[in-house]
Write a structure and sequence with these properties.
The protein has a three-stranded antiparallel β-sheet, with no helix packed on it. By secondary structure, it is an alpha+beta fold. Helix content is 35%, strand content 12%. It is elongated.
Length: 105
């Protein structure tokens, strides 16, 4: 979580239904499905998209994309199958390495 003035320079996640307080686990981690992702949004756009939490307080914040995302269930299966797709596989270091190895043989 970060202040809107900082968040505007990053990717911002919007939690489904804006139910942030109900989605905090016993350790204080935010758990929930993202319904939207905003890339470097203005503060006004974050407000319009319900991406600001505690917006009625003196300290509103947004959820900044930290680069750590956990996939489970169907999302995990779809993500892994995407990695197996020939188009996507051609963009991986494993494919590039195997191509270089096989061409030098």
């Amino acid at each position: 979580a970060e202040m809107p003035e900082v968040s505007k320079n990053h990717g911002v996640l919007v939690i489904e239904g804006g139910l942030l307080p109900k989605l905090t686990d016993s350790l204080g981690y935010i758990c929930g499905a993202a319904s939207n992702y905003l890339q470097k949004p203005s503060v006004q756009y974050m407000a319009e998209q319900n991406a600001l939490y505690n917006h009625d307080s003196e300290h509103p914040f947004a959820l900044v994309d930290s680069g750590v995302v956990i996939f489970t269930g169907k999302a995990l299966v779809e993500f892994v199958s995407l990695l197996q797709h020939p188009f996507t596989a051609a963009c991986t270091s494993r494919f590039i390495h195997s191509s270089l190895t096989s061409s030098s043989a």
